[in-house]
Fold:
Amino acid sequence: MSSGIPPEKDRRFATTLARGLSVLRAFRATDDGLGNAEIAERTNLPKSTVSRLTFTLQSLGYLNHLGRGDRYRPGPALLALGHLANASMSFVDVSAPIMQRLADETGTLSLLAVRDGSKLLLVKTWRPADVSSLWLEVGHRLPFDGSSSGYALLAALSEERFDDVIDQIEGDSSFTDERAQQIRDDAANQLLTTGFVVADPAEYFTPNIHAVSVPFHPRDLGEPVVFSCGAVPKDLTMARLRKSVGPALKASVNELERIMGMSPGMPESGM
Structure:
């Protein structure tokens, strides 16, 4: 199980770099810029520290700040990094028409989530036509404990990576080794028997959504990512989720794997 030593306690850990990256992660797609006070609130960093970090990031082009009293916004250097990452991960573009078709056919929000420290970050969403009641946006973060996306990712991680991830989560919440292992075992069993993962609604982090998830193992990343479908409970009952939407999501991920020349459910290297 986990070593109990958080990564930030390792002497190789660059705290200033980590804090700077946490400032960049504070921005969401729906923000109209952020001030230092808002960034400090979102990152739990002192405002004086945030002021130094935002000045540095602005100087390097990762943030824009047009003048006195203006709010910080993502800058051109950050955009360049995003394009570089997107171009190097071909599965993202290949998955887009598949997931959009799935969203339209099921009337659910389809999404792609990746691990971002102790949470999962939504990096892509595909909305069904003429549906406006779905509220998750790119940049939204989901907890591991209480989300089908989190459960699916925990099940798909290698043992070594699982221990590392749990160390990070435990440093940010009351999540325990025992709880994490229970979730991992249950989700792995679901993947084995149905090919998808559904979190128990009684455990879900919010009562406003039902969701199903399937992990995907990109060749060009060091750990799996997760594709999910979700909707408000009245539109996506648990029966419908398990009988039709879950199998449709699994079929869509299998299609992506075939296009990418991968074996279905191929795990990450070293698993």
The radius of gyration is 19 Å.
